[in-house]
Design a protein that fits this description.
single chain, 103 residues, alpha/beta, 4 strands, globular
């Protein structure tokens, strides 16, 4: 299952523009996906947790946002490491300078 967590407010609203462009490509190529938009600080983590709890196999999670959104994501969380969830996390950063570079 391909899922996106999107922070549309990242990089002063450019996150929304970047997501619209990416979503257009997904639709054009008929790629099945689900998207979730963050509403508050820390929401990316709770969204990822909910996605993991849905019981789907082989979850591919893409986090679209800045450094804060990426740092909220579950890739290094002990809660996710201890769960039965098979999740692979990738980042599509909208940040001008990212502190996750090279990870």
């Amino acid at each position: 299952m391909l899922c996106f967590i999107v922070n549309e407010h990242s990089r002063s609203g450019k996150g929304a523009k970047i997501w619209k462009e990416a979503e257009a490509v997904l639709k054009k190529k008929n790629i099945a996906y689900e998207s979730y938009v963050t509403q508050y600080e820390g929401h990316a983590f709770s969204l990822a947790h909910d996605i993991c709890e849905c019981g789907a196999d082989d979850i591919q999670l893409v986090v679209v946002g800045g450094d804060g959104t990426a740092n909220d994501a579950p890739d290094k969380s002990p809660a996710f490491a201890a769960s039965e969830c098979e999740i692979s996390v990738r980042f599509a950063t909208t940040a001008a300078g990212t502190d996750r570079r090279g990870e």
